[in-house]
What we know:
2 copies of one chain form a homodimer.
Chain A: H1 2-24, E1 31-33, H2 48-61, E2 65-67, E3 72-75, E4 81-85, E5 93-102, E6 105-118, E7 123-128, E8 131-142, E9 148-156, E10 159-163, E11 170-173, E12 176-179, E13 190-197, E14 202-203, E15 210-211, E16 218-220, E17 225-229, E18 240-245, E19 253-256, E20 259-268, E21 276-279, E22 282-291, E23 306-309, E24 312-318, E25 321-323, E26 330-335, E27 337-344, E28 347-351, E29 368-372, E30 379-390, E31 395-400, E32 413-416, E33 421-425, E34 428-430, E35 437-439, E36 445-448, E37 451-453, E38 459-461, E39 470-471, E40 475-480, E41 483-485, E42 497-499, E43 514-520, E44 523-526, E45 532-535, E46 537-543, E47 546-549, E48 563-566, E49 569-573
Parallel strand pairs in A: 1-2, 2-6, 3-6, 5-7, 6-8, 7-19, 8-20, 19-21, 20-22, 21-23, 22-24, 22-25, 23-26, 24-33, 25-34, 26-35, 33-36, 34-37, 35-38, 36-40, 37-41, 38-42, 40-43, 41-44, 42-45, 43-46, 44-47, 45-48, 46-49
Antiparallel strand pairs in A: 4-5, 9-10, 9-18, 10-17, 11-12, 13-14, 13-15, 13-18, 16-17, 26-39, 27-28, 27-32, 28-31, 29-30, 29-32, 30-31
Amino acid sequence: MDILRIFKTAAVGLMAVSVLCISSCSEVPEVVEVQDFGLFPDTGADATGPVREALEYCREHNSGKLVFAPGRYDFYPDKTFEKYMFVSNHNDGLKSIAFLIEDMKDFEISAHGAEFVFHGYVSPFVIAESENIGLEGFSIDFSRTFQSEGTIVSAGNGILEVTFPEEYPFRIENRRLKFYDPEFKTEYPFGNLLEFDAVRREPAYMVRDYYIGNNLDAELIGDRTVRLKIPEIRGTKGNVMIFAPNHRHVPNIIAHNSENLRFSDITMYNSGGMGLIAQKCRDVTVERMTVTPQDGRMVSCTADATHFSNCAGNILIKDCLFENQMDDATNVHGIYMRIEEIASENTMYVRLVHHEQLGMEIFSDGDEIEFVDEMTMSTLAHGTIKSVKRLNKDITRIVFEENIPETVEVNDVIGATEFPEVELLNTICRNNRARGVLLGSRAGITVDNCFFHIGGSAIMTGGDSRYWFEQGGVTDLTVRNCTFSSCKFGGWGPAVISIDAGSSPEPETAPRFNRNVVIENNTFITTAPELLYAVSVDGLEFKGNTVTRSEDYPYVQSGKEPFVTERSENIHIEPLN
Amino acid sequence: MDILRIFKTAAVGLMAVSVLCISSCSEVPEVVEVQDFGLFPDTGADATGPVREALEYCREHNSGKLVFAPGRYDFYPDKTFEKYMFVSNHNDGLKSIAFLIEDMKDFEISAHGAEFVFHGYVSPFVIAESENIGLEGFSIDFSRTFQSEGTIVSAGNGILEVTFPEEYPFRIENRRLKFYDPEFKTEYPFGNLLEFDAVRREPAYMVRDYYIGNNLDAELIGDRTVRLKIPEIRGTKGNVMIFAPNHRHVPNIIAHNSENLRFSDITMYNSGGMGLIAQKCRDVTVERMTVTPQDGRMVSCTADATHFSNCAGNILIKDCLFENQMDDATNVHGIYMRIEEIASENTMYVRLVHHEQLGMEIFSDGDEIEFVDEMTMSTLAHGTIKSVKRLNKDITRIVFEENIPETVEVNDVIGATEFPEVELLNTICRNNRARGVLLGSRAGITVDNCFFHIGGSAIMTGGDSRYWFEQGGVTDLTVRNCTFSSCKFGGWGPAVISIDAGSSPEPETAPRFNRNVVIENNTFITTAPELLYAVSVDGLEFKGNTVTRSEDYPYVQSGKEPFVTERSENIHIEPLN
């Protein structure tokens, strides 16, 4: 033990010297290399401890950059950072974090295409309360994926038989199927199923979601083959059934309350949640991000590729590939809080309702907000917040500068009035479950030169005050030069482009939700008639678009119209040629 | 709505005036009444909001006392305090807290026997980072108990049939039994079973624990009767089977890193964990605490009545009744951390191992600690901590003032060297699962004038470095004037009094764990021969005790000796008369 200790002490000493030199030899922001902390690629050693020390060093010394040499780095949970986090559209929890960038400024991580492999429930990146942060040049994968993928042996009559490859360890425990890590120490529980087409490598044609929970009757009928009882199960022999996780605990990158963030040249092969979730952030750029499954798998991220909740400034997504994730390519929205109690003329208690939004801190002192009628989704009035007091993850008390308008009542909702400008450029969205992109912003949205091949709607806008409590409405939405290639081969959405107004039980007849939508110079290759569904839109132009029928999928004779508009005005739709 | 608002505003105004008056009319510490915050007993209204406002007021104004009028108060989760807590021998988690006393000094709550009823997973009391705090005069119960109790219809041949009263709502979901609150919104999951004798109202004679998890085949066979498949299940028709929770999320009182605490005249009818858990506290007095089941139930707290982890100063438990809880009446111990890695001559990483100890912050800069051999449990050496850095709930890095001794190796453990003086006086411990009291301290323990009727050992000491990692060893333990009435009618422990040395795979022959034990003037009414089991004791006197046979239970002819001593010296045992 003596010799080892002397060696280690010497190494620590050398590191200190090298670091000192870097720090004192230059006026420009210091560049730190992980090698200085004893971390080299492709060793199989746990990178978490050295990376943590390097990040702590960078934070303490205001270093400008942390650099990785190319190669593989393995991250285990033992020496992770730890932080309790409420994450929008995810489960909250005590996160075990490999890269924590907190209270930092003007800092980037550059990794020359390094492969980061995470072992267990380790959250790869958290950026919190930080400014001008860049991440670039690495891939993220997990040694054990959060989903399990099995080949369908047979499906029908309430029985599903599936064979699982060895990379998805499982056991039958008292007639219940449980997935584990290879050491059978940690469970990887599933909650819903989705069938993928083994040849097309996308959700199977007109497939449905099976939200079946974790409590199915199961029986081992072969070496790695399981028979499950699932009411109304359907599936095609040879296709792949995805057993998706019943949680969203481990998104790859959480960006919280930060600004000026750049994510470039990042590849994501898997996640236990979304790829990137940004909440209460301002100015976020995502360039050349690839979300794609590892060879041999069907699924990449187990939820959305990217997601922006109550963000502001500019959101730019450019030159990306989002494919095979288990939910949308992106979703931009605010969150409504529901009025629980009006306690005095200027004080109310508001509640976060959807369980994946609990704990979100949406409002700050001085914010302007809108009061929204829960029945019509109309903006009733605006108000200015004097003070916000968060009681707990459910309830917040808000005092307003002015009296609360008489028209505002319990169960109405309130939302922010600052929205991000959104640009989605030159990006491919394909082969994932659900929709392409969900967009909600009243500060302008541009979708330009993108390619969509999506089972549901390619572009959808919405908002509701009943279930998701996602704040919606678009202003100045332009979709141009895009290709919508054989979308709607599944059931997620009423038309290729759906401009919706949320679930309003008593909708107003005049448009009040969406304004100034332009859809021009796009190519639609269709699998069904429904091109556009537009509700509560004031001003819509559909022009210069080309529409042909898909030859790759059956054409669904739904009897529906290509264009459906409701409660809208100033609609100009160029006739189809 | 107008009139209501005006009324509420007026009420708030009045309250402010009344409070101002109290605060300005006196030099002595202010006494605050919850009525001043609009809270009156027996209304059924949610007390959580007003209590929170009152506590916030008291904290801000350094008030001396918060007073409740007698009567019933109901606490719902909406307006609770929230705090992530690591709690010794419990599950860590985000606690929803009704009474949070944090960073307070010289403060007490006095409630004149008020009944506090908690709805859902609400943690009643947390005291953190506080000094000179008293709680007195109230009872704690939950509207839905954390355990479910059913009457056994039949048991045997791998089948248990049980009928549950309506106060334990349940459903069979795909052949699995799930307990809920009355609205079926929140699950109350079970993890283990224990049979209670319906007549004696205590664990059934020679019963065993069934750790069966939450995954049993279940079937509804009557209106509220369930048939469960449980291997080797036994039970007597008419007895009560306890379905105990599979978690410890909601202890009644958590005291963390605080000192000079007094708990008086408190009655606990239920809990989702222990009654009182004190960790890293100094000087704690528990007087006239009653832990007992509500009428019609078998079980009180679902874990220990009281528990003291890494406490110091004086622990005084006096004039208490602890009965029918699902674990010991008290447990006093430290926690060992296991050496994970020796990183340099004075730096090591240590790990908390048992899952219910994760996150505990045991050591501080400047602390003296002991290094303990994991094989023999002998203290190898002592060390002084220079600095402690908690990496996460699992791993802590410790730098020592001196070099780590050469004899210390990875997998050895370290423990604190400050211990509390413990006094357990005039207290009744009976009818609970497991042991009476577990005592580990080297600063003196006195058990005087207590009554024990316990299924396992009445008094046990121990400690181990393999599973629980509870730091043990007693010095100056005196047990006198106690009655041990028909103990060991179950299997939990080798003798009525067990002075153990933990699980040491290679025990040393010389005593090194326990010192100076005196057992005098007690009365033993026995159900089996085994009175005393003593291991690794240096100095033990057993004198002036009276031993008779129990007439209430069968006498077990085990063939064992009344006194078993191993690896001990200076043992003086007075012959039995």
